[in-house]
């Protein structure tokens, strides 16, 4: 029995809400990577200058993202408590744990009756937020709330600013975020108490998210397919450069207020982006803002020294015909009505959440539970630069891996390594202690310690790559009309993963093992889900939600028949109707024909 399927791509229901009919689609204007950018000179002088302008602020973003390591670092503190019956003494406190005369005062009700506090800073600063307001002992929990504030503000910022970037444009969101970043960031330096500090840090994180998201999206939308990943990785290395430079910057500033001001003040330079940085041409075309697009195209052509009159493909002629159309913008909520797009974004959200969440589990496994310091160095700088070195090595390994295996293959490989490191750390160490070396306690503890450190380093290495690649992957498979909202969802998921670190610290690491087990299970689920993702290497960016729906997974083996596996075919193959006989769709069939040859699902059989 032969089966002929009616193609529905070019004949969408009129009330679909997000897919336009074929006759209304400007084919050349929406083919930005294949038609518009080559016509305007490709990756020319204009694009290179704008990409450079997106790299410069990334260094300042790196400073802001890692500032908590210095502003809220716990110092070595000593409490001199009041004299009792003519005698006095000293009490050392690390966080909320109290030690009197070197003994652990676990029976103490938690109240620190201190006449004064003395601190020994380890981060290069003479004073930070903890020492300024004595956030130790009973007030140590306020430090974790201050860490919450920046992360929670970033999560809300990614969600809100992503939607606004799709509705009002990337450029406007960038400028508004910079203005309020200057206002709230500088005000943080003049906080009078920890409550004011935490509140202002929430809004600082909100604005920081807007800058990060808008720059990321504009950078991707400027590049042709072959340059997107390399340009993004350069930005990642610049962020890591900011992380590496932060200890030196803190040592030069001495005081936390000066450090905060030095981190924020360079954003003043971004005020010039009001004039020198234009709106995204890709977003303007996708949202049918053709008058603005016309001005941008002439500006780009002039900068790239391209003659727009030599228009062989008729791009400018098509633009002139489309000028009367009204702008049409799309919200991320339209993603819910799709068939494949929402699944891809949800998979990447879970990958990002698991990557950042389990990264903290591996970092915590390198810590000595008694001393709350790294088991290798017992030094802040050694710990800090070890984390930074692992991140640099991860990015270095990510470049050739993605170049060889592609986005999906690279993400799958690093996720498998993460899952193996997690499972071996959770299971192998227990087996060593249970079935071997039962009588040699010292050797067993040494092996457990060394294996734990080794698996932690491998896990941090791979989980960092998973997180970065998930975010980049999202920008490539999300359509231009909702790219800001899609990227905001994945970045917000990453923020939730990072939020698990201060939550565990607030609860004094209680439930840490269960926390690790849950994220280890998430990595196993992600391995299966990654196989459902499409491969976006060397592919044009999808512009509309319809393009995003067609951006589906390719089969491992090519289909044997052209009429099968419709969703796995390329767009050119899907529109090849030369072998399909014309069917009178508009003409109602005869009654006897309906009874004989039609079925309820619209498939004609013979």
Structural features, described:
The chain is 59% helix and 6% strand. The protein contains 21 helices and 9 strands. A 5-stranded antiparallel β-sheet has the order 5-4-3-2-6, with no helix packed on it. The protein has a two-stranded antiparallel sheet with strand order 1-9. It has a two-stranded antiparallel sheet with strand order 7-8. Mean pLDDT is 79; it is low at 1-23, 85-111, 369-375 and 562-606. The longest helix has 56 residues, at 380-435. The protein is mainly alpha-helical. The radius of gyration is 28 Å and the shape is globular. The chain starts with a strand and ends with a strand. The chain has helices spanning 32-39, 45-65, 68-71, 129-132, 141-168, 170-188, 194-222, 228-253, 256-264, 273-276, 281-286, 290-303, 315-322, 341-365, 380-435, 441-477, 483-506, 512-530, 545-550, 571-574, 591-597, and strands at residues 3-4, 76-84, 87-94, 97-100, 103-104, 116-120, 367-368, 373-374, 604-605.
